[in-house]
Design a protein that fits this description.
About 25% of the residues lie in helices and about 35% in strands. By secondary structure, it is α/β, with parallel strands linked by helices. It folds into 2 domains: about 150 residues, Roll (2,3-Dihydroxybiphenyl 1,2-Dioxygenase, domain 1); about 110 residues, 2,3-Dihydroxybiphenyl 1,2-Dioxygenase, domain 1 (Roll), CATH 3.10.180. A hairpin with an 8-residue loop joins β13 and β14.
């Protein structure tokens, strides 16, 4: 059995968190309150679904920003930055990864504050980094939630005007696909139970998305497929918000240049 079985969340790196939050609200998403990464000059908003979420991670203090996010934005610009796989217990995940021959660091305890209903809470995680993985420009790690009741503290965070219900696919551009597919199989076998991860040459992805891919990085996470109950309603919302998009027979595509470096495709469940 492969050590990992589900997607926890996808990270999108953005240059300015407030601007990105405004963009994704125009795309029809509900965002969680802003969280701050103390001492790093960065913060986040999350787009919550039932069993996964998207994390918009951005700079909130240009002078104090440091760490992987600031380095990523400075070197490559905005776009998909990381994949967090879900696990119930970090220590068990480490043991399973190492047994599968995957280098896994000891769990790292992390936290961030959450101010909610006049209460100051602390959201706590234990993450497992996998530094030996070679998928280009993608940070892959395991995330375990020690305070899951705070991660989705409000049901209304999962109610999106565009009718989105979850991340169904992550599309990654990479050169030596055979090598990375072997690596992926060691991580999660034949696939994750709640989302697909597709690794293809960029030329093949361009054949699918065309000019919508312009503005996404040359390699790494270039597109997300999002399940929606009503693609037509999502398209109407985008039109009202004057967000550039393309409509196909089965989906609505927002180009990377209009979504901070990543193609967002809304497809019917």
């Amino acid at each position: 059995m492969a050590p990992l079985s589900r997607l926890d969340h996808v990270i999108i790196a953005v240059r300015n968190l407030d601007e990105a939050a405004a963009t994704y609200r125009r795309l029809g998403f509900t965002l969680t309150p802003r969280g701050l990464h103390e001492g790093r000059g960065t913060g986040n908003h999350c787009i919550m679904f039932k069993d996964s979420y998207i994390e918009l991670m951005g700079i909130v203090d240009e002078t104090g920003a440091k760490g992987r996010l600031a380095e990523r934005v400075a070197a490559q610009g905005e776009g998909g930055m990381g994949i967090a796989y879900g696990a119930d217990d970090a220590d068990t995940a480490v043991a399973a990864l190492r047994a599968a021959g995957i280098a896994a660091e000891d769990p790292n305890d992390l936290s961030r504050p959450l101010d909610l209903d006049s209460k100051h809470e602390i959201v706590k995680f234990r993450n497992v980094m996998m530094p030996g993985l070679t998928l280009p420009n993608v940070i892959q790690f395991v995330c375990t939630h020690l305070t899951p009741e705070l991660t989705r503290a409000r049901h209304e965070w999962q109610l999106h005007p565009n009718s989105a219900t979850g991340v169904s696919g992550i599309i990654i551009a990479a050169g030596d696909t055979a090598k990375y597919e072997t690596e992926a199989k060691a991580l999660y076998g034949e696939g994750l139970r709640n989302a697909s991860i597709t690794i293809q040459p960029r030329t093949k992805i361009e054949a699918c998305y065309g000019t919508a891919l312009k503005g996404a990085p040359d390699s790494g996470i270039v597109a997300l497929s999002i399940d929606v109950n009503e693609p037509d309603a999502a398209a109407a919302m985008l039109s009202m918000a004057k967000v550039p998009h393309q409509e196909t027979r089965s989906s609505v595509i927002v180009p990377a240049a209009s979504a901070h470096g990543i193609v967002i495709e809304f497809a019917e469940v």
